[in-house]
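Shift notes (night). Ran Fe-S oxidoreductase while the centrifuge was going.
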Amino acid sequence: MRILLVALNAKYVHTNLAIRYLRESVKGEFPEVEIREFTINEPIERIEAEIFEAKADVIGFSCYIWNLKETLAVIRQLRPTSPRTRILVGGPEVSFEADCFLRENTEIDAVVLGEGEVTLLELLRAWELGANLAEVSGLAWRNPQNQEIMINQHRQQLAMTKLPNPYGGKEDFQGRLAYVETIRGCPFNCQYCLSSTFQGVRYLPPERFREIIRRALSCGARTIKLVDRTFNVNKEHSFRILDIAREEAAHYPTEAGVRVHCEMAGELLDEDWLDYLRDYPKDLVQFEIGVQSTNPETLSIICRPQHFDRWAKYIREIQEMNKAHLHLDLIAGLPKEGWSSFRMSFNEVYAVQPDMLQLGFLKVLKGSGLRERSEQYGLIYAPDPPYSILQTADLSHEEILRLHRLEDILDRYYNSGRFGRTLDWVIQQYPTPFDFYHEFAEYWRNQGWFKQNWSAKALFEKLWHFWDSQKSGSEPSSLTSIQERLRYDYYLWERPSFFPDFLLPSQETLPPDYSEQRQALQRDRRWENLIAEYNQMDRRQWQRATAVDYFCEPQPQWVLFFYKNGKASCYPIDNPI
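Came back to this:
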């Protein structure tokens, strides 16, 4: 029996952990099993053609809110030319309301409900032997005799000790993410999340994790993303996993480096975490922490009580250590979170200055508590996946559209990391950070800029035009203030071969001997002791790797920028020649 397991990922860099677990779970009895991955942006015809030409007897698709539409389109195109092929689906998007799903999608023979490692194996055995599918737990299926939809009994959760290494096959993870699971389940009961529908937390033995990460790294992976819902639920487990990650990553001391991404609960951070991280290698870990909201009433409704004002201090201390990249998440569209409440949540989280502030929008998922109580909170959401929130009793559709535009601007400017000095100053000119991003986003809308794609270089100009049109009339000197900071950020982004006109400083702000002093400072011998690479470069190489300029704000100062591996280091010159 030939078996093909298929995933349509959101992007090429993504990989699918589920189909790898399934492949390793069945290949002992069904060796003719392989996986194929595509992206949702590829033509449906091309995907269908490759699947058809594999000539599989059984084809399984991994389904999520971001790929269900495209996956069903592939299945509908595949079925007419493959009438005898058995087609099944699995994943969180089809594990709820499976009977309705099968009635609406007659091309599909069966749905694996929940965890599928054992269910798929038993289903393949039954199909091969012609046995009764009613004996396969965790399955919804269509009776071929009368087309009746059958829902079998629920399957018990699988102990993680029984899971295979998902990376048992040959892989090439160069430039792609490798997903790893060390925990199944979640201690929290968040009503917007499907993890609330399962009880208990199960752990992968740490030495099993070592086998998995070692294999993934040997296949070229450099970003390991843990899919654990709450990685820090058990400190002993978390610290041992991070110990192993450090030990295994030490074998790959490349310039790009290894990074392990963990989803954390801020409420579970404490002094033990600070003590642990003090001796941890810089940049090896990235923490994503879901704040979601700082409104107590909202947090109570979604069953995620937390006190951001208490645990934000740990975030600040981790930042001061400079050991981990920190991403904080907010969700717009939660119950009882109106415009003013969300504005407050945004400002409180922004004040912590995480490396990224990810603004997401509520997805009213099948099986979630919020979906069941959507009428109570006036939740109006898209009828098709990903079921994005459109309106609530507290937030109008117009306000949600404004927040989408704000999210776009936040990603382009704050999350890009290119405008640090400029944003620090600009934000101070507004009542709150939220007010700046909102006003800037509405300016983009009025200019029609959201309709086009813009280069990173163009974003500098957009911010300049916004400030020039909005603020320069009442405060002419502010143009110099923002220009100097934009120019500094421009240098930090790349070594410029030339400057656009709006970033050229006026002669009044420059020293009289600007050009001569600039050249002399670039050639100054002081860099021999400050920058190790200086002695390894000839004069031409040094000139290409550096730039010197004078800035009159925030204080008059010369600065040398040194560029290496796409990153810039800056060296303020306290004693110019």
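The first strand starts at residue 3 and ends at 9. The longest helix spans residues 397-413.
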